């Protein structure tokens, strides 16, 4: 889609992706880094991010769906890269997954048996990663169910990996931390049994929260998502590793004008000017993935200063109060997420204001907001 007149866009710093991959690789060495690029790399653009991550030394990539995996596999540069499909798949996707040599997570016995039978028919090992539910309560074999182990012949090359996912490794409370420990203890016991049975699958459990705060869980591979994009899932601005922010959401002001005391702004008349107020319109709204939750709560940067959002966020625009920057003009740059001058509106801070998580803010951004990638190495 060509959008030559769009005034709102996202800048993505690929050198920051490369930096973050290297920081993770160094901290978790010798574990390899699986760059999690599902959901179009959390809204950052899967192809560009995957390329930057692989160049920076990532071991492989992870996506959520079969279609996301096939789309990357179709690109010649990712022909031989390991790509893991993380979310549950159905038996009718197995042929496509194996045909494209995608690594696949398996968390129930019928699906495992289906994949193994297909691999026998194809006379080629599958790349199956057994998912154990150690407490996430989502997909996977329950931690005390090892019935699947008998499905693998000794040394079966289709048994590529053994993995689990944490439910609260990004939490900062003592009970979150204790639960992460419990999950890892459950996993360790399973790993010991699997190894004793003569298997050597790739071991991986760590997402961003675990990498940042429970580094001892490192196995053969780690699966960072949000921290690749420079964001601490715990919402702190001084994460334990020196991450660099990747995404900046920018726009430009329009319709700058004075409203009179007593005038209301936007739908529902939820904000009324107490005094004559300089108001500008930012051409970005919930149709672009800028949440309506920011109505009269969020702020943006203009001339390096924080200026508040007034009234409801509309589908295509929202209004800001420019009283503190009276020399603001139509066309001036607005930074919605990111840095302008000495000021910064981090995704962590903005997510807290909206009562959500940074993941949602980046994933929400729709195709109407063009991505501009720079800093490729
Ligand atoms: C199985 C699995 N591993 C790793 C990740 C990456 O998580 P994070 O973005 O918190 O690092 C996810 C994301 O939800 C996931 O589902």
Topology overview:
Blueprint: E1 9-13, H1 14-28, E2 32-36, H2 38-42, H3 46-55, E3 60-63, H4 66-73, E4 82-85, H5 94-99, E5 103-106, H6 109-122, E6 128-133, E7 141-142, E8 159-164, H7 174-196, E9 202-204, H8 208-213, E10 221-222, E11 247-252, E12 254-259, E13 264-265, E14 271-272, E15 277-282, E16 299-302, E17 305-310, E18 318-321, E19 333-340, E20 343-345, H9 347-354, H10 358-364, E21 371-374
Helix pairs in contact: 1-3, 9-10
Bound molecules: pyridoxal-5'-phosphate.
Pyridoxal-5'-phosphate is lined by residues 36, 86, 165, 207-209, 223-227, 233.
Mean pLDDT: 97
Do you know the CATH architecture of the largest domain? Alpha-Beta Barrel
* Helical content (DSSP H or I, runs of 4+): 25-40%
Query: According to CATH, what is the class of the largest domain?
Result: Alpha Beta
CATH fold label of the largest domain? TIM Barrel
Instruction: Give Rg in angstroms.
Output: 24 Å
Number of domains: 2
How large is the count of helical segments? 10
Tell me the overall shape: elongated
Low-confidence runs of at least 5 consecutive residues: none
User: How many extended strands?
Assistant: 21
- Structural class based on helices, strands and sheet pairing: alpha/beta
How large a portion of the residues is in β-strands, by DSSP E?
A: 15-25%
Distance between the termini: 26 Å
CATH superfamily heading of the largest domain: Alanine racemase
Which small compounds were modeled alongside the protein?
pyridoxal-5'-phosphate
Give the biggest sheet.
10 strands, mixed
